[in-house]
Amino acid sequence: MINKLHYISQGENTKAHIENIQKACQHGAELVQLRLKNISEKKVLKAAEEARDITSHYQTRLIINDHYKIAKKVSADGVHLGKTDTCPKIARKELKSWQIIGGTANTLEDCKTLIEKQVNYIGLGPFRFTSTKDNLSPILGNEGYQSIIEELKTETPVIAIGGITIEDVTELLTTGIHGIAISGEITKDFTKIKAFHTLLNTGSVMEQRYSFKK
């Protein structure tokens, strides 16, 4: 099962990312993604090891952005691959069968390509403008999501991402998305995690009882 709320780590430096992951876990996050850009692989590995220790303690799922080999090394629950990252099929050959793979999409064609490559979920966005990502793809909005999901007709979970606030969730859910990925809105106020869970109705017994495989 793919969790409906994904917290994407944010911070001015690596230490801040780790501290924010800790706070997210303390406030009930069920899945966090370690997203570090423009730093060495060695530093990403160290941060991933720290994030794995934290998330294991709280029984929170950990996804590593971009680095599938690091995801494998630290026994993360999966990897999220951007449009210019490693092909999901290549990553799948390296990862354990239980480790999940997510992929970034902006268009209907992107989604179809990811489904062909058998990703476990699609991160589709951006919903609106966000400063957390460089070279932003065209904005989708509610109509964009609805159009793509209606055409796609897939069982692969679609996770909306990009500048989403708590006020957006109810209407976004009417488009057929499976869940949402949040960065800034949660980093500003980690107490909102509970409210997001309530809106998404994610507090299921199955997700709470998720056990890690090593």
TrEMBL record:
Binding positions for 4-amino-2-methyl-5-(diphosphooxymethyl)pyrimidine per the UniProt entry: 33-37, 65, 104, 133
Ranges of residues in domain Thiamine phosphate synthase/TenI: 11-186
A molecular function GO annotation: magnesium ion binding
Gene3D superfamilies: Aldolase class I
Binding of 2-[(2R,5Z)-2-carboxy-4-methylthiazol-5(2H)-ylidene]ethyl phosphate, residues: 130-132, 163
Catalytic activity: 4-methyl-5-(2-phosphooxyethyl)-thiazole + 4-amino-2-methyl-5-(diphosphooxymethyl)pyrimidine + H(+) = thiamine phosphate + diphosphate; 2-(2-carboxy-4-methylthiazol-5-yl)ethyl phosphate + 4-amino-2-methyl-5-(diphosphooxymethyl)pyrimidine + 2 H(+) = thiamine phosphate + CO2 + diphosphate; 2-[(2R,5Z)-2-carboxy-4-methylthiazol-5(2H)-ylidene]ethyl phosphate + 4-amino-2-methyl-5-(diphosphooxymethyl)pyrimidine + 2 H(+) = thiamine phosphate + CO2 + diphosphate
GO biological process: one example: thiamine biosynthetic process
Cofactors: Mg(2+)
Zinc keyword on record: no
Functional pathway: Cofactor biosynthesis; thiamine diphosphate biosynthesis; thiamine phosphate from 4-amino-2-methyl-5-diphosphomethylpyrimidine and 4-methyl-5-(2-phosphoethyl)-thiazole: step 1/1
Free-text remark on how the cofactor is bound: Binds 1 Mg(2+) ion per subunit.
GO cellular component, as recorded: cytoplasm
Superkingdom field: Bacteria
UniProt binding sites for Mg(2+): 66, 85
EC identifiers of the protein: 2.5.1.3
Keyword presence, Transmembrane helix: no
PANTHER family: THIAMINE-PHOSPHATE PYROPHOSPHORYLASE (PTHR20857), THIAMINE-PHOSPHATE SYNTHASE (PTHR20857:SF15)
Family according to the record: Belongs to the thiamine-phosphate synthase family.
Function text: Condenses 4-methyl-5-(beta-hydroxyethyl)thiazole monophosphate (THZ-P) and 2-methyl-4-amino-5-hydroxymethyl pyrimidine pyrophosphate (HMP-PP) to form thiamine monophosphate (TMP).
Protein name, entry field: Thiamine-phosphate synthase
Organism: Hyunsoonleella pacifica
